[in-house]
Amino acid sequence: MRDPEPCRMKHTQQQTDLMEESEESEEQQHHHVKSREKTHSQTERITLLKRRAKKSFTCTQCGKRLTSKQSLENHTRIHTGEKPFTCDQCGKSFRYPSHLKTHMNIHTGEKPHECDQCGKTFSRAFSLKDHLKVHSKEKPHSCSLCEKSFSQLQHLRMHQKKHTGVKDYMCFECEKTFFTAQELKLHQRIHTGEKPYKCLHCDKRFRQLANLKTHENIHTGEKFICGQCGRSFAETSYLKKHMKIHTGEKLHECDQCGKTFLRTSGLKSHLKVHLEEKPHSCSLCGKSFSELQTLKVHQKIHTGERDYVCLECDKTFITARHLKQHQRIHTGEKLHECDQCGKTFLRVSGLKHHLLVHSKEKPHSCSLCGNSFKHMQNLKVHQKKHGVKDHKCFECEKTFITAKKLKRHQRIHTGEKP
């Protein structure tokens, strides 16, 4: 039998040799890693020094380092406020020629950035980037109050201000407040008279780009036509709003009385009916209003100011809305149709007045005899039969119940025979 001791000794020696080789290998590897880390660190340091060496131009105002003298000159304009590049169309100035070049697209109408999804074009690259989110349908930012979602956080923040009522931007000319700086900027052009958007066809100028686009449709003849009544519109958005008249769609409901409205603006104006607060008073007659704009319109009654003129008959009006309603007399346009008999009307009030013909309701009662009427006007005429004669002839002092009867009587004195 063989002695196992020499074998055991030989095996132990082999293990020792292997361990020593492994330790030596690890030491070499560690040394190599350290050497590589040191080399990498040195490379980074050299690159940083080279970069710093390149940025040898330092701003004395804020300490920022720049790579060239030109870059430094451009940068210092931030501190000095210098804007040497001026637009020859509207006089607006810019710090950099690239900003002027981008701005000029507003006047030329050039829109080099096109959406590959729908073909819509934009003057700036970032506008296209924002637009692309419309196609992705991704709206990760939700309002915690009404759960409405937005593709951009900035749009959510703007929306939330409508719930809080916070209007941080105030016009120092008239103290009107706005949700965004952009809204304020557009408003201020009313005071400054600035109209940066010029029509290439007739040189007419506008405060807003949207107004210019609408105006240009006059020259191009582009119209969007309603399939229900044939009325044409300069913009698709106007046609979309108009269609609600035919569909009867009223999405905006008053939470106080349940009345519904076609537009948000209609609901907003209506809500003030429920508020008792009327801080704006007329200095001439004492009548109070919830909105300053409504007071301004009212004051024109006292001053006789009528800025809106009908080009067909030269009749003048206090507001653009009243002029627009009047112009329908000349065009024959009647947008408001009765769903009972098909009769059409110039105004909503006319349709509402007419609808009572189809109902048996007579909401207006005479307090003296109990007689009821469908219309308030008919009740007023009736009440005069109880003895009230407001209309007096200055020739013979005879009194009449209605103005119409007085007018007929006055022909006796004037000799008029129509």
Structure in words:
The protein has 418 residues and is α+β, with helices and mostly antiparallel strands. It has a domain at 67-137: Double Stranded RNA Binding Domain. It has helices at residues 5-54, 69-80, 97-108, 125-136, 153-164, 181-192, 209-220, 236-247, 264-271, 292-303, 320-331, 348-358, 376-383, 403-414, and strands spanning 57-58, 65-66, 85-86, 93-94, 113-114, 121-122, 141-142, 149-150, 169-170, 177-178, 197-198, 205-206, 224-225, 232-233, 252-253, 260-261, 280-281, 288-289, 308-309, 316-317, 336-337, 344-345, 364-365, 372-373, 391-392, 399-400. A two-stranded antiparallel sheet has the order 1-2. The termini are far apart. Mean pLDDT is 76; it is low at 4-16 and 24-38.
* Whole-angstrom Rg: 39 Å
The total of beta strands comes to 26
Q: What percent of the residues sit in helical stretches (DSSP H or I)?
A: 40-55%
- Total number of helices: 14
Strand residue content = 5-15%
Tell me the span between the first and last alpha carbons.
Answer: 155 Å
Looking at the overall shape, the CATH architecture of one domain is 2-Layer Sandwich
CATH class of one domain: Alpha Beta
Strand order of the largest sheet: 1-2
Specify the overall morphology: elongated
Low-pLDDT sequence parts: 4-16, 24-38
Q: Tell me the CATH topology of one domain.
A: Double Stranded RNA Binding Domain
By CATH's scheme, which homologous superfamily of one domain applies? Classic Zinc Finger
Give the structural class: alpha+beta
Average of per-residue pLDDT values:
76
Report the biggest beta sheet as strand number plus sense, adding barrel if it closes.
Answer: 2 strands, antiparallel
